[in-house]
Amino acid sequence: MSAPLRRDFPTGAPRRERDDDRERVTVAVEVPADMLYFSGHFPGYPILPGVAQLVPLVVGQIRGAWADLERPRRLSRLKFRQPIFPGAQLELQLERRGDAARVQFRLLRDGRTCSEGAVDYTPAAA
Fold this sequence. Notes:
Elements: E1 15-18, E2 22-30, H1 50-65, E3 72-80, E4 89-97, E5 102-109, E6 112-121
């Protein structure tokens, strides 16, 4: 019996930077070859699907960084620029201005952008 395939991304401790009007969170991310997301995507040429980048990784890290952002409602400015392969070492950059309900993200490998965009959240009830 084989071991179950991984669903989680091993990450380093988040690094936070703040200035007057924004907060940035940077996280080192590993992409193990035994991840469920590579199964069938694509045989002989595995790449990390966009949905795996967005839901468990980006949205998961936003949830950990800003607990007041509860429910994502829209993705915008989404671009997938470079494929992500098994074994990749990535850096996830998140940026939020003030208490806005939007977080911009960039996922980089060796300083080159793999994917980027913004996640809009439902504003918190007053």
